[in-house]
Design goal:
heterodimer; A: Fumarate Reductase Iron-sulfur Protein, Chain B, domain 2; elongated; B: mainly alpha; 3 helical TM bundles of succinate and fumarate reductases; 4Fe4S_Fe-S-bd (chain A); metal-binding (chain A)
């Protein structure tokens, strides 16, 4: 048996209940191989080094969206990000620990309020998500009208919104967005992508309700097309495209209002 | 009237000018630079000054002013304003909007005056 390779990892620690005023870095030496993910590192630390470490996780397969953290300053899903990539990038030999500079720095998601260690307050994102009504709005749907036919949708109608439906609400795009960092009132990439997803859905009739939120300064218009949201998205959703298609829709919606003379909430577009 | 303008703001207008200016910047400005900045001085294309002047004095001259001078100016103004916002200069206020779009309007006015007096 050869010795397992090891490397140093810095993990941000913060426990206000213990009286911490500021987050501090804890350096730990962890073993790794080619299949060790950042989440594996955190689990190793919790089980073997310091059981007080707090972080969120669930599925380990990039579908629950719980384990978002900043790795070397970039928002990543812990389960979808691997130690091997960082050690290789540094160009260090097989035993990274020989050089005690940390290969990875793991911090809580940027732009959110830290609650403890790597756990952030996701309500700051969920409030925006709720505001855009990310569900099918259809007054004539079955619960209201039992005699209504079931919804049918062609593959072409599905294809219009399918890409934007892959969002797992992990919040990485909010940690990446400098505009959300400057203004937490900005509705933000994921919520706008999901608003766009439902606006494009042939079964939906709620676009006029969502446009009220998207048309505001804090809606699509806070975006300056930095595009980092789409770079970090672990599911390839491309929220930047959704936001900028949303700008076209918002401009149309406001122009229609100007000519029709009714407020955005009343006009069905 | 109140209902008509409720919740409206000018951002879509600036963004529309920015988008149109972006297309002009990407497509028209480089070709103008190529023709008048390189090919003409090098003698590859031969345009007589009088032909060019009569062309510029027509309505095409005004179109040229719009797509090569005015819209790119508004594109640049929008970029600069948002760049300043990112650097927290004039954050949240309308001063940067006034200065940036005002400059683009001055550039546009100068372009129109140049065309008119040509």
């Amino acid at each position: 048996m050869t010795q397992p390779r090891t490397c140093y990892v810095d993990i941000s620690r913060y426990d206000p209940e213990r009286g911490d005023q500021y987050p501090t870095m804890q350096r730990v030496q962890v073993p790794y191989d080619d299949s060790t993910s950042v989440l594996d590192v955190l689990q190793y630390v919790k089980e073997q080094v310091d059981s007080s470490l707090s972080y969120r996780w669930s599925c380990r397969m990039a579908i629950c969206g719980s384990c978002g953290v900043m790795v070397n300053g970039i928002p990543k899903l812990g389960c979808k990000d691997f130690v091997r990539d960082y050690v290789a990038h540094k160009g260090v030999g097989r035993d990274h620990a020989a050089n005690d500079a940390p290969a990875l720095t793991i911090e809580p998601l940027a732009h959110f309020t830290g609650e403890r260690d790597l756990v952030v307050n996701m309500d700051e994102f969920l409030t925006h998500l709720e505001a855009v009504k990310p569900y099918i709005i259809d007054p004539a749907s079955r619960p209201n009208n039992p005699s209504a036919a079931t919804h049918s949708q062609t593959p072409a109608q599905l294809a219009r919104y399918q890409q934007f439906a892959n969002c797992i609400n992990c919040g990485l795009c909010y940690a990446a967005c400098p505009q959300f960092g400057l203004n937490p009132e900005f509705v933000g990439p994921a919520a706008i992508a999901l608003a766009h997803r439902y606006n494009l859905d042939s079964r939906d009739h709620g676009k006029h309700e969502r446009m009220q939120v998207l048309n505001t300064h804090d809606g699509v218009w806070s975006c300056t097309f930095v595009g980092f949201c789409s770079d970090v998205c672990p599911k390839g959703v491309d929220p930047a495209a959704a936001v900028n298609q949303g700008k076209v829709e918002s401009a149309k919606s406001m122009l229609i209002q100007l000519f029709k003379g009714s407020s955005i909430g009343d006009s069905r577009s | 009237m109140k209902q008509r303008i409720k919740g409206l703001h000018l951002e879509p207008l600036w963004w529309g000018l920015f988008s149109a200016g972006g297309v002009c910047f990407a497509v028209l400005v480089p070709s103008v630079v190529l023709v008048f900045g390189l090919l003409w001085p090098l003698g590859v294309v031969d345009v007589s000054f009088t032909t060019l002047q009569s062309w510029y004095q027509s309505l095409w001259g005004l179109v040229f002013t719009a797509v090569v001078i005015s819209l790119p100016a508004f594109h640049a103004a929008h970029r600069i304003r948002h760049g300043l916002h990112d650097m927290k200069i004039g954050y949240g206020g309308s001063t940067t909007a006034f200065v940036c779009y005002g400059s683009a309007m001055v550039v546009t006015a100068l372009g129109v005056i140049a065309w008119w007096s040509a």
